[in-house]
Amino acid sequence: NAGVMQNPRHLVRRRGQEARLRCSPMKGHSHVYWYRQLPEEGLKFMVYLQKENIIDESGMPKERFSAEFPKEGPSILRIQQVVRGDSAAYFCASSPPAGLADTQYFGPGTRLTVL
Amino acid sequence: RKEVEQDPGPFNVPEGATVAFNCTYSNSASQSFFWYRQDCRKEPKLLMSVYSSGNEDGRFTAQLNRASQYISLLIRDSKLSDSATYLCVVNKRGLTGGGNKLTFGTGTQLKVEL
Fold this sequence. Notes:
- The complex is a heterodimer.
- By secondary structure, chain A is mostly beta strands.
- Chain A contains no helices and 11 strands.
- The termini of chain B are far apart.
- The interface between A and B is medium-sized, with 30 and 25 residues.
């Protein structure tokens, strides 16, 4: 059973470009979470999604950031018009459907560098 | 005040030592508690869940005190491979009843030395 997969592992963008980060949850997991870890800081929750639904986006910046988890395919975190402050590690986690367990399993992360 | 507070360390200890980490959380509605381990530039990995009754997994013992909103992790007979950052994590289950939003402490760095 493959773990949580994220790609790309490293992404370099120039200011003003778009960044797309992809996350495939563990098999059988229907909940996906995105976290951001800025340099020298702890992980911060961004958004929680189930298939085709955003459940909690209280940690998402109000502008330029969006997330989706379509019926088919991976979850996507999209950052438009990136700025240097967006440079961080972005981790995706997944968990089983409600009632089975609430442990979250993390992917290896995408390290975004904005030049 | 941060929702989850930890001493950042670093804790430098010799191999074989016993080391204890502490953590406090501010949200009394928190329902689940965990210790994760994060190696440099890698993803957090679940070390253990934490229960009020206390739980032990080999050399690791975790304890929760809900009244004091305090969580601890004890590592006995530390190994070089224990060197990592230890993250105290709490969650509050969402109103939908499913899923949860983890709140992380900034982590305590442990360095085990020969």
